[in-house]
Amino acid sequence: MSKVALIAGASGITGSNAARALIADGWKVYGLARKPDAGVPGVVPIAADLLDPGSLWHALQDVAPSHVFITTWMRQTTEAENIRVNAAMVRNLLEALSAGRHVRHVALVTGLKHYLGPFDAYAREGVLPPTPLRESRPRLDVENFYYAQEDEVYAAAARDGFGWSIHRPHTVIGKAVGNAMNLGTTLAVYASICKETGRPFRWPGSEAQWKGLSDVTDARVLAQQLVWAAKTPAARNQAFNIVNGDIFRWSWLWGWLADWFGVKAVGFDGTLHPLEAEMAGDGPLWRDIAQRHGLVEPDLTRLASPWHTDLDLGRPIEVMTDMANSRKLGFTAYQATDESFFDLFTQLRADRLIP
Predict the structure, then answer these.
(1) Is residue 310, in this structure, part of any structural domain at all?
(2) What is the dihedral of CA 225, 230, 234, 240, to 10 degrees?
């Protein structure tokens, strides 16, 4: 099997971990981004803008990937704009690769908004699905940019004859600076601020999330599934949920996270305390913390995404995920969730991103 991968979004949480997994498995890996970095040794950087068909054609004319991994998106102010922009990114990339007819598999990473609804209708009454969330659930009757991205993949597959896989993680836990959805690092930064200021590490979310069952997706487990699907014929043209394989309650995990940082945990007190408001004025404070501790990223907005963490932790239902599709086909990867967080925190500290 030809093993040449092109990753759109190779510097993000998902893309960087996919790159490491593919390289370890003997693949040649190209990483496409507007400003590609050298964060993963062995990745061949390609600079191109997914919204500029001309730049894509020029950058990819001498690249012949057998497998394409789409792990990126761009947040817009409305769902209509999310659909327009993110569908165009997928369409432009696959059209730029179409003439060579060398692509045999395209993997698209989306997420649980497939079941919970888009940002402006996220997990609200009236669109709440039964849990655990199953791959067999039909699409919601709402606009959703994940659906638009999928449809672009399906159309290109019909045109060019490649197979595809769709991967739907829950909250992805892993390191990436500048990532738009980064709950693990957001909580690490919040806890670090609490440690420095003496604030309590206060639960920001809903009672349902605090008391209910939940799961998350370690970026390393998602990477394993991406490689597995690319190499497994029976995985062709299927959608897969992907989570760690365990479940937890925030009511006890929250205290474990607080203990790691040596801060006081405060649980649900009857009301929401959104992190977006809690951390709104912490930019100058973080810059001071970074200077005093010799941290490499003084810009709080490059590390924390409180708006997305609030979406996840503020849901009015518990959310856990069924992985029947890939389990039945033999995918057995497992990761303990507490270790996902602790491994991330250790890496962030070693890389001087938190004190």
Answers:
(1) yes
(2) 40
Give first-to-last CA distance, the chain, whole Å. 45
Q: Average of pLDDT values for 323-333? A: 97
Asked whether residue 49 falls in the same domain as residue 183, the answer is: no
pLDDT score of 39: 76
Q: Which pLDDT value is given to residue 122?
A: 62
Same domain for 25 and 150, yes or no, is yes
Examine the residue annotation and report whether 190 is marked as an active-site residue of this protein.
no
Mean residue pLDDT across the chain? 94
Instruction: Count structural domains, the chain.
Output: 2
Domain with 280, as residue range(s), is: 174-215+247-319+334-351
User: What value does the mean pLDDT take over residues 308-324?
Assistant: 93
Q: Which of 30, 115, 146, 147 is catalytic?
A: 146
Cβ neighbours for 266, distance < 8 A, ≥ 6 positions apart: 200, 201, 202, 203
Look-up of token digits 């979004």: 9
Catalytic residue among 30, 113, 115, 147: 113
So what's the pLDDT on residue 176? Answer: 86
Is the peptide bond between 132 and the residue preceding it cis, with omega within 30 degrees of 0? yes
- The reported pTM is 0.95
Residue 113: active-site member: yes
